[in-house]
Design goal:
five-stranded mixed sheet; D-Maltodextrin-Binding Protein, domain 2; alpha/beta; 345 residues; 2 domains; 10 strands
């Protein structure tokens, strides 16, 4: 009789354990589902496979987006008209791109666009070519590869040539689609010179090409890389974009202080595994990037000045009207940035 009671007691305990385990499994499933629901999805585009646009990659790879309950869908879109269309049509809620094409859209009446942060406020592109083209004057009549007309490389090329007594009409611009494609066109001899930035310029150097014009020395002001969104999206999802900007601030900290981690991210997204190329590119570019995501008004004014000769309406727009600094201001006033940088490694 006692033996039967012991067996029954054991059976009851097993049933009890199973019930507890079932409750735990159910609780974990519910918790996981609620966590997934808590992550806000955000659609964002980037427009160049370059180091200055690597902050979202860093946030993705290090789990910073997850830390801020964000599910960010990053999509590459070629710069210029396609990238602007992605923002204006609502296909993307936020973008990382130069201010040039967006400024044109804003001047033409799309006042919904706002620049909410900056990454690079000067241009750091360069002209690279084969050894026969020894100086800037030799570029006259040559085929120059840029990603797209109206893109950062194109604007840099026009400004840089002007400083050496040449105008845009003195060369032929060839659109390639992106930095890797520009380098490929140079190697295939489809162009005579390429406008490239870090680290693709270092790849070109490694292949035997040389600088004809070294852009960083010119320090041409320009809102070359920015964070931007529509004002209507900011009004609708202010907290989501605020968390995104905090994630970018943390990513900027990593970019500026943790080379090894940054190299790993760049290796994956740029498919460059040569340590010397990564190091050369990093050293050249990091000095031009904003550690605290500042966007400078003189850089935006340069964008307006570029457009003014073609569209006089640009003279009626002030750079202050183009920005929404609420997120930068909040991170500064709350002490978030000070705390973030106080433990600089």
């Amino acid at each position: 009789m006692k033996k039967r009671r012991r067996v029954k007691s054991r059976s009851q305990r097993v049933v009890g354990y199973v019930r507890i385990l079932s409750v735990l499994v159910l609780w974990v499933a519910v918790f996981a589902e609620s966590a997934a629901v808590a992550a806000d999805r955000l659609y964002a585009i980037y427009t160049a496979r370059v180091m200055s646009q690597s902050m979202p990659w860093i946030a993705q790879e290090t789990g910073i987006f997850k830390k801020y309950d964000l599910d960010v869908q990053l999509i590459f879109v070629t710069p210029g008209a396609p990238a602007v269309a992605a923002i204006l049509t609502g296909d993307s809620e936020l973008s990382v791109q130069g201010a040039g094409a967006l400024s044109r859209a804003l001047i033409q009446g799309n006042r919904d666009i706002a620049f909410i942060g900056g990454i690079k406020n000067i241009l750091t592109h360069s002209f690279l070519a084969k050894q026969e083209i020894k100086k800037p004057e030799n570029l006259k009549g040559k085929r120059i590869g840029v990603s797209r007309i109206g893109s950062n490389p194109h604007y840099f090329a026009v400004q840089a040539l002007r400083r050496f007594g040449l105008e845009a009409r003195d060369v032929s611009f060839i659109q390639t689609g992106g930095a890797p494609e520009t380098l490929a066109a140079l190697v295939a001899q489809g162009i005579d010179a390429a406008v490239l930035t870090s680290p693709t310029d270092a790849q070109a150097l490694n292949l035997g090409y040389h600088y004809v014009i070294y852009g960083p020395d010119l320090r041409i002001p320009y809102a070359a890389t920015t964070f931007n969104a529509r004002r209507s999206v900011i009004a609708k999802r202010p907290q989501v974009l605020g968390r995104f900007m905090r994630a970018m601030a943390e990513s900027a900290k990593i970019l500026h202080t943790d080379r090894e981690l940054t190299y790993k991210v760049l290796e994956k997204y740029l498919r460059i595994h040569d340590r010397k190329i990564l190091q050369a590119g990093y050293n050249a570019e990091i000095k031009a990037l904003e550690p605290r995501l500042a966007i400078k008004l003189d850089a935006l004014q340069a964008n307006l000045d570029e457009i003014a000769p073609i569209d006089p309406r640009a003279k009626n727009v002030k750079p202050q009207e183009m920005v929404d600094t609420r997120y930068l201001d909040e991170m500064e006033k709350s002490g978030f940035l000070a705390q973030l940088w106080s433990d600089k490694r």
